[in-house]
Write a structure and sequence with these properties.
The structure is a single chain. This protein is α/β, with parallel strands linked by helices. It has helices at residues 19-33, 60-67, 86-96, 98-102, 122-136, 190-200, 218-235, 246-255, 261-279, 299-306, 322-331, 335-338, 345-348, 360-367, 372-381; strands at residues 2-9, 40-45, 48-53, 73-82, 106-113, 141-142, 149-155, 160-163, 167-168, 180-184, 204-211, 238-244, 285-286, 313-314, 384-388. The chain is built from 15 helices and 15 strands. The strands form 2 sheets. Strands 1, 2, 3, 4, 5, 6, 7, 8 and 9 form a 9-stranded mixed β-sheet that branches. A 6-stranded mixed β-sheet has the order 14-13-10-11-12-15. Helix 3 crosses helix 5 (122-136), helix 6 (190-200) packs parallel to helix 7 (218-235) and helix 9 (261-279) packs across helix 10. The chain is elongated and about 85 Å long. 41% of the residues are buried. The structure holds adenosine-5'-triphosphate (ATP) and magnesium ion. Adenosine-5'-triphosphate binds at residues 184-186, 188-191, 208-210, 269, 287-289, 293-294, 344-346.
Length: 393
């Protein structure tokens, strides 16, 4: 018996003329991600992508796990492939679903016939397959309203498929179809969630981290890399640029007004991030900021930060409560790493009374106490970039 994976494309089907391009992007992502599972043919038709193994040792279990993390897919089904005739369907269904049906008490059959030339109509297919399954598993009862198992039979162009309920896919759009963005990543809870959310909207991320050694430790940097390697399970490999910020931070601490220091630091972070982002073909920045979470994320503070940036800054968490952010962090498995207690450069010289209603002129005056341009150029001359890959499938 041949098994295959049926992957349903989500919003992609809405994209008119671009649809073919998006599907191609999705197929090449799948080809890359499934490369270690064994030989398979990946094709698409009728808004379904089919992954059909062409080697006996194809690792279907791993392939399912991988496909669950590919953005652009709304659902996936592991299905038996049959010839399009009722004898074959009724022979394969009880064999393929034996374990599942033995463990169930109630079931129903649903049929979908996208090939209208097939001689039986959907209700007839349902009746015939239902009868056949009842004869093989006499303990089962049909329950059309609330069945434990729904057996689905699809009659498509080339083949028929038998499967049970689809598994949920990762949703969103294929990574890369919306271009590239620079991600400001700290070691906290928020920015990895922001990364996941924007990769899910089709952005390729270029991560940027500000590192203030020795105030922040090598372990803090390793933690950021670990977080990115978890995000990469969904987004695919991430380019990661580290920007040394120690000297700039010391100058801010020593010369700028303390109550504005975090905000001034954030303005330099955004300036540096924009430069790195532009150098790497990005057209936007992404941060994990959330309105009112801390002093530098009040409305007026965000305005002062945006004033130094000429790219859109995407803040996908802006309207979310911390508890909602934590929920996603747990789902994507970044939470336990995020709460490891290493310092971030934003927290090493925190002012006692940060300004929550800053005026732009005041911030600009405070910032003028240091030679920002030279310090920025110095930091940017010391950046280094590496590639972070997923830590597991
Ligand atoms: P996180 O927001 O990731 O949980 P946090 O809440 O400790 O960490 P904030 O001080 O709220 O960090 O920073 C707000 C945002 O600024 C972060 O979400 C991140 O996008 C960016 N950011 C903070 N620190 C750094 C850093 N060291 N390098 C790069 N970006 C940073
Ligand atoms: Mg935060």
């Amino acid at each position: 018996m041949q098994e295959t994976l049926l992957l349903k494309c989500g919003e992609l089907v809405l994209k008119g003329l671009n649809r073919a391009k998006f599907e191609d992007r999705l197929i090449s992502a799948l080809r890359h991600r499934l490369r270690d599972c064994g030989g398979c043919a990946i094709t698409s038709s009728q808004s379904t992508i089919t992954v059909r193994p062409d080697d006996e040792n194809f690792d279907m279990d791993s392939a399912v796990e991988i496909c669950k993390k590919v953005f652009g897919l709304v659902s996936l089904c592991r299905a038996a492939v049959c010839e399009k005739n009722m004898d074959e369907i009724c022979a394969i269904a009880p064999e393929y679903l034996a374990d599942t049906l033995r463990a169930a008490r109630t079931f129903k059959v649903e049929a979908k016939r996208s090939d209208k030339r097939f001689p039986l109509k959907s209700p007839e297919i349902m009746r015939e397959v239902g009868g056949c399954l009842l004869s093989h598993f006499p303990h089962l009862k049909v329950d059309v309203h609330n069945p434990e198992i729904t057996v689905r039979v699809e009659i498509r162009d080339k083949d028929a498929y038998i499967h049970t309920d689809p598994l949920p896919g990762a949703g969103g759009l294929p990574v890369g179809i919306n271009g590239r963005a620079g991600l400001l990543i700290s070691g906290g809870i928020d920015s990895p969630v922001a990364a996941y959310m924007m990769a899910r909207r089709g952005l390729t991320l270029h991560a940027i981290h500000f590192f203030s050694y020795p105030y922040t430790s090598q372990r803090a940097l390793d933690k950021v890399k670990k977080l990115l390697s978890i995000v990469a399970r969904w987004s695919g490999p991430i380019q990661f640029t580290v920007v040394p910020f120690t000297h700039l931070q010391e100058e801010i601490r020593d010369h700028c007004p303390e109550y504005l220091s975090t905000l001034i630091l954030r303005r330099f972070m955004v300036r540096a991030a924009e430069a790195v982002a532009r150098d790497n073909g990005c057209a936007a920045l992404v941060t994990g900021e959330s309105l009112g979470q801390v002093a530098s994320q009040t409305l007026l503070a965000l305005g002062c930060t945006d004033a130094v940036c000429n790219m859109p800054i995407f803040r996908p968490l802006i309207g979310m409560d911390k508890s909602d952010i934590v929920k996603i962090a747990r789902q994507i498995d970044t939470f336990e790493t995020s709460i490891l207690p290493y310092e971030d450069c934003c927290t090493v010289f925190t002012p006692r009374h940060p300004e929550t209603k800053p005026k732009l002129a005041q911030v600009e005056a405070g910032e003028a106490m240091i030679d920002g341009e030279a310090l920025l150029a110095e930091a940017l001359s010391q950046v280094y970039t590496e590639r972070i890959v997923a830590d597991q499938v």
